[in-house]
Each structure stands twice: as structure tokens, then as C-alpha cells.
Design a protein that fits this description.
Layout: E1 6-14, E2 19-28, E3 31-37, E4 46-49, E5 51-56, H1 65-72, E6 77-82, H2 85-91, H3 93-104, E7 109-114, H4 132-139, E8 144-150, H5 153-157, H6 161-172, E9 177-179, H7 186-194, E10 199-200, H8 206-214, E11 218-222, H9 230-233, H10 236-239, E12 244-247, H11 253-258, H12 261-270, H13 275-290, E13 305-308, E14 316-321, E15 324-328, E16 331-332, E17 365-370, E18 377-382, E19 385-387, E20 390-392, E21 400-405, E22 414-420, E23 428-431, E24 440-444, H14 447-459, E25 463-468, E26 471-476, H15 488-504, H16 512-517, E27 527-530, E28 533-536, E29 541-542
Parallel strand pairs: 1-4, 5-6, 6-7, 7-8, 8-9, 10-11, 11-12, 17-22
Antiparallel strand pairs: 1-2, 2-3, 4-13, 13-14, 14-15, 15-16, 17-18, 19-20, 21-22, 21-24, 23-24, 23-25, 25-26, 27-28, 28-29
Helix pairs in contact: 2-3, 4-6, 7-8, 12-13
């Protein structure tokens, strides 16, 4: 049976030709047949290419791909460039396969990469390891689009043979290599880019981004739940619009319910950036850089496009994927699908005494200093508080305890450190989302609260929890200890309730759970904590708790 020709009238936004004109889009069998001008068209609605998140970890939405898609399409998202690095650290290639299969059940166009750093470093315990042979096997697959972020930048600069082999395999197959090089400037940035990575989403200053642009890289402007670099990097929209893309990197469900890349676009337009440059960054640039099978509103393209109410409020009213209406007026039309719940979780309950630590060295503590809206931390030195022969938290100085517990070995030792910046005045918060190895991370004001928060996570074989002031809450994450199998909006509501509880306990961070999840990410400077101890990225090695 011959498929029916469909048509839509409005103001056509031709991003390539940088013009807007009244016209008609016609499509059949999932592909655009024609895009023609028609002066008789009076509708003011805008028809334009859909948005692409150029770098996101779907797992950080706490939702599997099938549920992420249901929320994202309502905001005009038609595709993502997704690094399955998080679940790969838990389940290896099996986890990557899970993400690909789950995402393929939806109309949204997920484009997964081959994780390049599993585990991210040799200084932590992950649930799996992907060597160069395993990564090469993934890159040979048609559905794996690129080599995902090469996080071990010291290894790249030092000529690590395994990393070189992965990069060579990707380049041989014509697949892009994503970068991850926070803080690299000048000659180091040039050496990193020369080794193969073509993008970077970790720039937190304009000067750093300019150095990487000069080295030939493309820059992804990131604005997510924890890392918010839009304000610092927005000038690039004026100076380098052909080499900039938008991304979220990590986006918790409370924010995803309210917006996605459309939020970047509105902010850029409100700041006065050229509308065609902004839309190019949100659609054309990632499609062309990654060679995505995503339509850009041209005859012969897949019929992937969106309808927006106008340049003022710029609200997405409809999203089409393959010619099918998948969202209308802020509501998804994508069918809810149940996702499987693979996991690897062997941690056992803990007692308060497991978090006690006695002085072993010098007079000063090495302290992690967390920063609101940033993944980077500072390395502080503080006089410790001691009670009963043990180091203790000092709420008045915002000097709290942090611990990381190996979730893959039942009774592994607990790594304990101290942290500033979370502001808790009571209780504790814990999470099995702890980049990149996803052991259990917990921050609290006393050992009893820390044990209680951890045990809620353990009981549910993964999750987020908060305990204190007579309250306790948990969001179970049965999919790899990273994602929920509930409806996305229900997950957002439960996450919001936990976030509020963390803030009732005293935290003034915008996203305390997202920030907590990065306190074990060793490849982001400077001081972090793995299940094996305090680690300094600047020294690229462990440091003692007190020295």
C-alpha cells in the first residue's frame, strides 16, 4: 500500500541558508519529499530541525533510554550522542548492549559510543573492564557511532598503548573520538588534540576553550545538573558558531521534566546570540560532526523536525520523528515500555564503626572542597576535629565526613575522607551513582547517619537516600544501581522529594545528589575519593588522609 503524503504549513527555518520563509513541508514514509515556499501561508509557527544533545550519559537521568525518550521528545529532542560509560563500569559490554537494545525500542535516535575508559583509572574498583580488544569489537559494530570520551588524558599525553590502539581503531573506521580534558591549556591541549580527540565538553573557562579551539578541537557548551558552564562559554556562540555544540552531560530527572536542549536555545536567544548560529549549534553541528542519520529539514532527509510557537517564548509545540508525531503541547506520545533490570550489587549492610578513622600521620587533613555548579574540586588543608581518639566532622566549619564503599565486593574496607561545601547540618546522604565506578558514596555529619543512609541504598541494591532530623527517604535504582524502572515523571517527583530533604538537612548546593555523584570521579581535578582512598589528579596518585 502506498503511504499517505502528509504536509505541514508554517514559517520554515532554513538553518543552512540562514533564512525564514512561509512554506510547506511535505513527507511520506518517514522522509521529507519537499520543502517549498508559499506566500499564502499565514501561520506564525516555526518549523525547524529538531535538537541534538551532543554529549549525555542517559544513565544520569536515572532513567533507562526507553523512558528518557518519553520525556526528552516533549522538548524537541530528536537525537542524542550518548556515552554508556556509566553502565559499562557496572556491567561491561553487557551494559552497553542493554542501552542499545533499550533505546532501539523508541523513535528517539540514540547514538551510543564505545566507552574508552572502563575503569576510568587504575586507582578505583569498577564492576568491569573494557580493554582495547573489547573496545575495538564495539567500534566494529554499525550501531556504535564513535569512541566515547577519552578521560584518561594523562594516559593520552603519555602515549598509553591501549588508548592509542582505541583511538587508532576509531580513526581507521572513520568514527569520531570524543575528548575529556579538564584544565588542559596551551601545549598540553595541543598535544592532546594531536593524539586524536576532536571534542571537549569539560571547559570551565573561556580561555581554556579558546586554547582547545586553537588546537583544532570543537567545544561542547555544557549545562546540566552539576556542571554549568554556559555562562562562561556563551561568547563562543558569537566567535565560533561553526565549532560549538550544546550538551547536558548529566541531567537529573527533575530538570529533564522541564527542559532539555531547548533550554540552552532559549537562554542563548535571550542573551542576544544570532538565531541561526544558535540553531546550528543545537542541530546541524552535531549531526554533521558525528554523521548522524538525523534529518535537517531538507528534501530527502528523515522527517525529523519540530514546531515552535515563535521566537519570543520559543516553546516546542510538536516533535516529529520519522514523520510520526511523538510529542504535542508538552506531552509525550511515546508509549511507556517496561525495561529489564540487570544489576551487579554485592555490598552488605554497614555499621557506624565502619566509618570511624584514627589519626595516622601529620597534623593537617587533606580536604575535598566541593564547588556548586562544578565538577572540579579544590584541595584544602584543615585542622582535624578529634573525639575519642578518632577524627570527627565539624558542622560549624562545614567539615563533613565522606566515604566510598566498594559495591562489588561484600565486605571491602571503607575509604573515609573529609569534605567541605555540602553544608549539611544534620544526617547524611548516600548514592550508588558515583562516577565512574559507581561504588556507594556517602556524606554525613556522624557515623550513625552515614551507616543508616548507606544501608537504605544496600537494601535496595542501589539508589539515592537521605536520612536525618527524623526523616528518611530512598529512590531505588534497580537497573545497574543507576536507573529506575518507574515512570519518568514519578522518578522526577521522588528525586525532588529527596533533593528537598537534603536541603532541609542544610545543603545549599543546587543539586546535592548530582554533586555527590562526582566526588569519586578521579579524572576531574583535583582532590576526590575512590573506594581505595584519597586521590589527587594534580599529583596523579593517592594522598594520605592527614599529613
Amino acid at each position: 500500500m502506498k503511504s499517505r503524503l502528509q504536509r505541514l504549513t508554517g514559517q520554515i527555518v532554513d538553518v543552512h541558508a540562514r533564512r525564514v520563509f512561509p512554506g510547506v513541508v511535505e513527507w511520506r514514509a518517514g522522509r521529507i519529499v519537499s520543502v517549498c515556499g508559499d506566500a499564502r501561508v499565514r501561520e506564525r509557527r516555526l518549523i525547524l530541525p529538531g535538537f541534538v544533545d551532543a554529549h549525555i550519559h542517559i544513565e544520569s537521568s536515572l532513567l533507562p533510554p526507553a523512558e528518557f525518550a518519553r520525556l526528552a521528545v516533549a522538548h524537541g529532542t530528536v537525537a542524542t550522542v550518548s556515552d554508556p560509560h556509566e553502565i559499562a563500569n557496572v556491567l561491561g559490554v553487557r551494559g552497553v548492549d542493554y542501552m542499545i537494545r533499550d533505546g532501539a525500542r523508541t523513535p528517539l535516535k540514540f547514538n551510543f559510543g564505545a566507552p574508552s575508559c572502563v575503569p576510568a583509572t587504575t586507582f578505583e574498583t569498577a564492576g568491569a573492564a573494557l580493554d582495547s580488544k573489547a573496545v575495538a569489537g564495539l567500534l566494529r559494530r554499525r550501531e556504535v557511532r564513535y569512541l566515547a570520551e577519552v578521560m584518561n588524558f594523562p594516559g593520552v599525553l603519555g602515549g598509553d598503548p591501549a588508548l592509542r590502539a582505541m583511538i587508532a581503531e576509531a580513526r581507521k573506521r572513520g568514527k569520531p573520538v570524543d575528548g575529556h580534558a579538564p584544565g588542559l591549556r596551551g601545549e598540553h591541549a595541543r598535544a592532546y588534540a594531536a593524539a586524536g580527540p576532536t571534542t571537549d565538553h569539560e571547559c570551565f573557562t573561556l580561555q581554556e576553550a579558546q586554547d582547545k579551539l586553537a588546537a583544532g578541537m570543537k567545544i561542547l557548551i555544557r549545562e546540566g545538573s552539576a556542571a554549568r558552564n554556559f555562562a562562561a562559554l556563551a561568547p563562543l556562540l558569537r566567535t565560533h558558531p561553526d565549532r560549538v555544540m550544546f550538551c547536558c552531560d548529566d541531567l537529573h530527572p527533575d530538570l529533564l521534566v522541564g527542559g532539555h536542549i531547548d533550554r540552552h536555545v532559549r537562554r542563548a536567544l535571550a542573551a542576544g546570540a544570532d538565531r541561526f548560529d544558535v540553531l546550528r549549534c543545537a542541530s546541524v553541528n552535531p549531526v554533521e560532526h558525528y554523521g548522524l542519520a538525523v534529518g535537517l529539514l531538507r528534501a530527502g532527509d528523515p522527517a525529523d523536525f519540530i514546531v515552535v510557537d515563535g521566537w519570543g517564548k520559543f516553546r516546542v509545540r510538536r516533535t516529529y520523528l520519522g514523520g510520526e508525531l511523538v510529542a504535542a503541547n508538552g506531552r509525550s506520545r511515546v508509549r511507556r515500555l517496561r525495561s529489564a533490570t540487570p544489576n551487579q550489587f554485592r555490598a552488605q549492610p554497614r555499621r557506624p564503626e565502619d566509618f570511624r578513622v584514627r589519626p595516622t600521620g601529620g597534623a593537617k587533613l587533606n580536604v575535598i572542597e566541593a564547588l556548586n555548579g562544578q565538577l572540579v574540586t579544590r584541595h584544602g588543608r584543615e585542622q582535624p576535629g578529634v573525639r575519642g581518639g578518632c577524627f570527627v566532622a565539624d558542622v560549624k566549619r562545614d567539615l563533613l565526613k565522606i566515604a566510598v564503599i566498594n559495591r562489588y565486593v561484600p565486605r571491602a574496607p571503607v575509604a573515609v575522607g573529609f569534605i567541605r561545601g555540602f553544608g549539611l547540618r544534620a544526617g547524611a546522604i548516600a548514592s550508588s551513582v558515583a562516577h565512574d565506578s559507581h561504588n556507594i558514596a556517602v556524606i554525613g555529619v556522624d557515623d550513625e547517619a552515614m551507616a543508616a543512609a548507606v544501608n537504605l541504598v544496600v537494601k535496595n541494591r542501589g539508589g539515592l537516600s537521605a536520612v536525618g532530623r527524623g526523616r528518611r527517604g530512598v529512590l531505588p535504582l534497580p537497573i545497574g544501581g543507576l536507573m529506575s524502572n518507574l515512570d519518568g515523571r514519578a522518578v522526577a517527583r521522588r528525586y525532588t522529594a529527596l533533593d528537598r530533604l537534603a536541603k532541609r538537612l542544610g545543603s545549599e548546593l543546587d543539586a546535592p545528589f548530582m554533586t555527590l555523584s562526582f566526588m569519586a570521579l578521579l579524572v576531574i581535578p583535583d582532590l576526590k575519593l575512590s573506594d581505595r582512598g584519597l586521590f589527587s589528579a594534580a599529583r596523579w596518585g593517592f594522598v594520605p588522609l592527614n599529613e
